[in-house]
Amino acid sequence: MSTQEIQQTLMQKEAQLKYELVHHLNQQVNVNSAAQIHFNMSLTELIELMSSQNLTDSPLFSQLTRLDAALCQLELGLYGLCSDCESEIEPDRLAIDPTEQRCAHCDAKHRQEHRQELRLSH
Question: Transmembrane ranges (predicted)?
């Protein structure tokens, strides 16, 4: 996939995610009325807003931060490299989720460590 095609895919994902976020955030009671949520907000602004509203546990927040990271990596020429080992992420993983941040090996390792952390915290 070319850089332009990747960017187009990520921008489509951004538009879809912003739609979901705007709808979700505008329905939140704790979002103050001064914080007008709208589609032309940047990803950074949406991340900051969700953080300030204590919505970081939301799956939408996770998707938003992954998208922001993927766009930054694309801009820096690092798109498709594992955030842990810096190897190339398998193309099939990126085809499934263009915001993927880890290769299969590091993702499995991360999930195992995260499961262990959850067990220890309970």
Answer: none
Q: What digits encode the pLDDT tens for the residues 46-65? A: 888 888 888 888 898 999 99
**Residue 81 to residue 83: CA distance in whole angstroms:** 6
- Residue 53 lies in domain: 3-121
How many CA atoms, within 13 angstroms, populate the side-chain half-sphere of residue 118?
Answer: 6
Residues 22 and 82: their CA atoms lie apart, in Å, by 30
Number of domains in the chain: 1
Taking only the tens place, the pLDDT of each residue in 3-57 is 899 999 999 999 998 888 877 777 764 555 445 566 778 889 888 888 888 888 8
Contact 81, 103 (CB under 8 A): no
CATH number of the domain within which 66 lies: 1.20.120.910
The answer, as to whether pTM is greater than 0.85, is no
- Show Cβ contacts of residue 118 under 8 Å, excluding neighbours closer than 6 positions: none
